[in-house]
Amino acid sequence: MKKTFNIGLIGMAPKDVLSMKSLMRVVNSSSRYREYNVVESGKCDILVVNLDSEISREVYRRSTAVVVGAYSESAPTNFKHSIKKPLIGRKVIDVFDRVTVQEFSYEPELTINKDDSSASKQQSLRKLEKLESMSELGFVDDVVSPKRSNIRALVVDDSAVVRKALTMLLAKRNIDVTIARDGREALDIIGQNYHFDIVFLDIVMPEVDGYKVCKELKRSASLKDAKVVMLTSKSSKFDRVRASLVGSDYYLTKPISQLDFLEFIDAFLNNCSKKTVTKNASGSCYRGTGAIVLPA
């Protein structure tokens, strides 16, 4: 479901107002995630202010909305968000998208979805890479989580989109991530006696499926205490039982929102913080078993 953000305009030329309204219609008909509507300035979430107008400067100082400064010549140094005139469609939307991530913590692109078509996967991957660049520039700032160290995760999935989304979500909780692109690569990693605290494992993969990987993982002396999370689009009772029989600890089904996923991770980390932690030579943590209360 799309989330709607209201855009207010102060001091903009009539042609810019018309261009903005036209752009919003195009975006709203094509975007999967966000909808932008032009409204009265007093009822907006994001306020675009013409910085070339002194009157506009006075008005925006009284606004409680997130302000985006529109300028003609040199970029203002005292504005967190700004955009150069004339207003160009893609650049305007990039700024608005960035504002929704930074100021409103709205990141639906991080939802872990089921496998899509090849074209859809490429589009999703590009969106995640764009969001990741925002994060690297300091634009993604989620709720501060409890202090912790040396948490290591192994992500096993043949979907590049899922791997990217999981890596970005786990980074929000300061978890170090190792990637395996399929079951065969996961077995190679397991055979090298690496240590992980938690493993996210897809079931349907070429050559070696998640059930076989989980079974081998639980046989490994270095990984027997690692928590295994089956993260899959398979949701039948049979698949859940089979996953339990090979040793998985948790079963999550795709699609899963970033909110639900982070609640799961926080429950895992809070449980870990209550356990006695010992470190092996490589710095990884071994923790005892214990129940983690998961969201419904």
- The stretches of 5 or more residues where confidence is low (pLDDT under 50) are 136-149, 276-296
Compute the average pLDDT.
79
Helical fraction equals 25-40%
Which secondary-structure class do the elements indicate?
Answer: alpha/beta
> CATH homologous superfamily of the largest domain, by name?
Response regulator
CA-CA gap between termini: 20 Å
Shape assignment:
elongated
Helix and strand succession?
A: EHEEHEEHHEHEHEHEHEHEE
Descriptors for this entry?
Rossmann fold; 2 domains; alpha/beta; five-stranded parallel sheet; disordered C terminus; 296 residues
Describe the structure.
- The strands form three sheets. Strands 2-1-3-4-5 form a five-stranded parallel β-sheet, sandwiched between helices. It has a five-stranded parallel β-sheet with strand order 7-6-8-9-10, with helices on both faces. It has a two-stranded antiparallel ribbon with strand order 11-12.
- Helix 4 (118-136) packs parallel to helix 5 (160-171) and helix 6 (183-191) runs parallel beside helix 7.
- Helices cover 38% and strands 19% of the residues.
- It has two domains: 3-106, Rossmann fold (3-Layer(aba) Sandwich), CATH 3.40.50.2300; 112-286, 3-Layer(aba) Sandwich (Rossmann fold), CATH 3.40.50.
- The chain is of the alpha/beta class and 296 residues long.
- The protein is built from nine helices and twelve strands.
